[in-house]
User: What shape does this take?
Amino acid sequence: SGASVLMESIFGVAGTPPAPGQAWPCQAATLAHERHCSEIADNGDINTLGGGVYVESSAQLTLRGVSIDGNLGNPGALQIESGGNVTARNVRISQNSGGIKLDAGAQMDAEHLTLTGNTGIALELANNAATSMTLARSIVWANSSGIVKGAQATLNFDCNISQSAPFGLNANPVLVDTPRGLYRLGAGSAAIDLCLVSGQSSDLDGHARPAGNSYDGGAFESDGSLPDLMFADGFE
Assistant: This one.
C-alpha cells in the first residue's frame, strides 16, 4: 500500500554500473531482435488479474521505456485498481490477452504508447467518475477491441492513432517488422510526423525524437530510412 516503483532497464551494459539512484545503462541498438532494455513478458495465466503488472491500494508506478508482451490474464498486460496511479512513457504493449484496464478510482498518464496485437480489449476504463486517464501521442491499433470507456470515466486524448473513434485519427500506422523488432513505423505510416509537441527526447529504441519535422506517434520514432519490410502481421 502506498508503494512507489520506477521500472527502467534490466539489460545493463557490462562493466558499467549505474549512477546512484539511476537504472543500469542500456543500449537498445546492441540487443537482439525483439529484445528491449526493459521487458515484462510471458507471465500469468488466463485467470490472473493483470498478468504482467498489477497495481492497487494507492500504489504509484512509473513505466519508462518498457515492452510488455505475451502476458496472460484479465487483462494480460496491466491492471490498475482503485487508487492506483500509473505513469507510462515509451511503452509497447502487444500480444497480451488484453491490454490496460483501469478500475474505479484508477488513474493513468500515458505518452507514446503502442498498443497493438492484443486479444480482448486494448484499453478499458471503468464507468466511474473517479477513473481518469490522459493518452497522448500513442497508437492503439489492430487489437481485438480498441478503447472502451465507461460514460462517467474521463479520458483526455491528444494526437493519437486509434482504431476506436473518437479517441484519435483512424488511419493506418503501417506497423512493420525491422531488424530491431516488430511494430516499428513503415513507409506511409499515418503516425509519422503526427504530433507537434512531445515530452520525450528519445523513443523505446533509444532513437532521438523527433527524427523528422515533427514527433511520431507511438513508442517508436521512425529512423528516416523506412525500408520496405514485411508488415508485423506477416503480410506484405
